[in-house]
Amino acid sequence: MRVGWLLIAAGLGGLSGCSKSSPPAAAPSPDAPVTVTVATLATESLDRTLAVVGTLFAKDEAVVAAEVEGKIEKTGAEFGDRVRAGQELALIATETYAALAHQAAARVTQAQANASSADHELSRQEILRKSGIASPADLDSAVAAADSARAAVKAAQAAETVSKLNLEHSHIRAPFDAAISERLAGAGDYVVAGTPLFRIVDDAVLKFIVAAPEADAPRIQKEQVVRFTVDAYPDRTFEGKVFLISPQVSAATRMFSLGALVPNAERTLKAGTFARGEIVLERGIPTVLAPLESIIVSSGNARVFVVSNNVVRLRPVTLGRVVRDRQEVKGVAAGEVVVTSGNSKLRDNLRVVLRR
Questions:
Q1: What architecture does CATH give domain 51-59+202-283?
Q2: pTM above the 0.70 mark?
Q3: CA dist., res. 335 & res. 337, Å (int)
């Protein structure tokens, strides 16, 4: 009897347990549509450019050297000074060269006096010879003396010209408008012709020298605009124009050099500065831009999910420039719809619900 009651209790307990359990939840369908955010691709007119890096150089630079020998009396410019063409930079033994110039002028005067006397004597001998008083030898002697006196005048004049040039060269002058980048000698130094005195640069116009791949050579022309930035002014863009294209490609790098002239009237930029920029190859080219969040990059490959009839297709694309919050893409067309959020839940050929 006891055993019977236990069996009945066990049965009731089993029925009680079955009545409290809930049916198992249904697993979500693997093909259920995924809700995604999308955007329609559009084109924007952009300049087609070539990215470049390079260095700014002064358009003109020179080492001003001594042209005469002597002691530097004084210098009239210092490192950092700006000078005009013809401005006096230094004096080298000017008193000595002035004295030599005066001496040469006096010798010219003396030689001219001697030549005048010789010409007078020659005229006298010619008259005497016509009268039969002077001998042919006397006339020949007078002719030789006159010729020698005239030659002496020319020699004295040449020496005077040299002395005047030396006096002028003892005043060291700037060859063009420039800034002094280095003073190499000072007052009291004894120099000879050719001794460097100043290093000067014309920074009113700079040269932006860069290298470009040989494959881009056909697209680069003179007068194309070059835009660039420098670290000193990260929020400012500077411009120049291509003026020099090297005719030779480097066998080591497969690159060729080119230069752009950059106006620098305010002297904002400094020679020797590193710069990053781009050459404008073509203007106003229609370009397809995709939102950055729509682009999937994995293992170096870029792809986007393109939506067509509420089904996504994974499309490989080639990336270009980033423009604000979008990037240039090739492989998709304007008007196509791409997924901008929910990419991580997608796979090729999956159905989606669009939420713009």
A1: Beta Barrel (2.40)
A2: no
A3: 6
